[in-house]
Amino acid sequence: MKTQHDSKGALAIVPERRRRPRYWLSAPMTIRPAGGSAISGLSVDISEGGMSVMSGAPLNVGETVDLEPVEDGRVSAVVRHKLGQMYGLEFVDLSAERAGRIAESCQKLAVQRAYGAKS
Hints:
By secondary structure, this protein is of the alpha+beta class. It has one domain (19-115): predicted glycosyltransferase like domains (Thrombin, subunit H), CATH 2.40.10. It has one helix at residues 96-115, and strands at 2-5, 11-14, 23-24, 28-33, 39-46, 50-55, 64-68, 75-83, 86-92. Strands 4-5-6-9-8-7 form a six-stranded antiparallel beta barrel. Strands 1-2 form a two-stranded antiparallel ribbon. The longest helix has 20 residues, at 96-115. It is globular and about 45 Å long.
């Protein structure tokens, strides 16, 4: 659940739309569009199903890109959303091993967030 203001300015509780929780993760990324050259980016958050990244170079909603590093390797993702220079990406074609490593990292980030620990 999250809160937002309704049309009259009152605070309302609304259900979370995301299927999986997101965890803050700020790290340099390399984004490689299909057939394009490497683009520098910065991760913003991650979940078991995808991540948000900032990029000064344009990406197109619906295109598939490779991201690196994600758990010390490369993953493919589809650009699902764009807001300015922020992109929402959904992981695709993850191996079971890579998916497990991302899930483990998300659990560690959840514990760090719960206890206020710094990474």
